[in-house]
Predict the structure.
Amino acid sequence: MAPIERIARFMETLDSQFLNDSFAGGEVVLIENFPPYVFEGGDAVARWATGFAEHAKNIRDLRHSFGDPHDFHQDGELAFLSLPTTWRGTIGARSFIETGGWAFVLVKHAGSWRVRNYGWAVTGVALKARAS
């Protein structure tokens, strides 16, 4: 879970130090809910990080929580899991809660796990006026 937690911390802070040792080297494929939706290739992580920063530029106080992992499978140096995730934050005067799931493929590299692929799917969004 460590590389997944670091990716979420990057998304909350936009501090690129959290991406160190989070993703596998080489070919990475990420599926997201912001353009261009599919980030793949050797520069996928850099393009995704830039795209996420643009996507989140008006979001404040972003924070995440994870549910229990599901459908965990490991086959040697590869592992798969799906992870229920809740994001909370504010956009302007409105707070939001976004629920969804991440499907991850991790690869073992130099004794630690790193994310090779993920796909994000939103399953619900709730918006409400922020209390004054």
Observations:
- The mean pLDDT is 95.
- The domain at 2-129 is CATH 3.10.450.50 (Nuclear Transport Factor 2; Chain: A,).
- The chain has two helices and seven strands.
- The chain has one domain: 2-129.
